[in-house]
Design a protein that fits this description.
- By secondary structure, the chain is α/β, with parallel strands linked by helices.
- The mean pLDDT is 95.
- It contains nine helices and seven strands.
- The chain has one domain: Thiamin diphosphate (ThDP)-binding fold, Pyr/PP domains (Rossmann fold, 3-Layer(aba) Sandwich), CATH 3.40.50.970.
- Helix 7 links the parallel strand 5 and strand 6.
Length: 247
């Protein structure tokens, strides 16, 4: 019998708690595959703060540390400086990273801390009830913006990858999504490059994943993926934002 697919050893045999259509489980799978292919499951350390992925340690088979809301980059800085030869990453949502943790991520990137950040951008607070996030689009509804976000009241959504790319310490930043197989494959490739650049000691690496949140968007799964590609990808363009290796 020929095996055509085998679950990554980077994940435990635990049922996920995420909502149907949520991208977290897919991204977890890709992280596990990448670290397994790099023979790094025995040494990898993930930092997961408050948010929908707060229980990520229940799913990954390698070591994880739970951080206070927004403080994963500070914890990752300490971990990576203590264990410079081990792959370290933060796994953060848009409310966590772009709001309460904005200062943490900016200064970690500015210093060129040698860890990887995986940023799940679903343009809304997922765990706490669907409030408007710094990445919520203009016109997009949230529990704290029932008529839709306006520029006059909340300003424009933050393009985090572009912002961090202006900092010298950030050597690689790419925005991806996992709405279909071709984009899923691109995401895995980007994750692997981010970890490889980290382990080469080049500096801070950043992967932003545009993700659907059907529950808080009030959409069916297929509808949410179409909305993501038509609206989010229009404002947050997919592709490499910065690569110091690129000519």
């Amino acid at each position: 019998m020929t095996t055509i697919y085998q679950k990554t050893k980077g994940l435990q045999d635990t049922e996920l708690h995420y909502c149907p259509g949520c991208a977290h489980g897919i991204v977890h799978k890709l992280i596990g595959e990448v670290l397994e292919e790099m023979n790094a499951l025995d040494t990898a350390i993930g930092i997961c703060p408050v948010g929908c992925a707060v229980f990520a340690g229940n799913y990954f088979s390698f070591d994880t540390i739970e951080a206070a809301h927004g403080r994963a980059p500070a914890v990752a800085t300490a971990v990576k400086r203590t264990h410079p030869d081990q792959p370290v990453f933060t796994y953060q949502g848009d409310g966590d990273l772009a709001s309460i943790g904005a200062a943490e991520i900016v200064h970690a990137a500015m210093r060129g801390e040698k860890f990887t950040t995986i940023f799940i951008n679903n343009a809304i607070y997922g765990m706490t009830g669907g409030q408007m996030a710094p990445t919520t689009l203009i016109g997009q509804r949230a529990t704290t913006a029932p008529l839709g976000r306006t520029r006059e009241q909340a300003g424009m959504p933050i393009r985090v990858a572009e912002m961090l790319a202006t900092l010298e310490g950030c050597v690689y930043a790419e925005r991806v999504c996992v709405t279909d197989i071709p984009h899923l494959n691109k995401t895995k490739k980007a994750l692997k490059k981010a970890f490889e650049r980290q382990m080469a000691g080049d500096g801070f690496t950043f992967i932003e994943v545009l993700a659907a949140c059907p529950t808080n968007w009030g959409m069916e799964i297929d509808e949410s993926n179409r909305w993501l590609m038509e609206n989010m990808a229009a404002y947050y363009p997919l592709g490499v934002i910065k690569d110091t290796e690129a000519k």
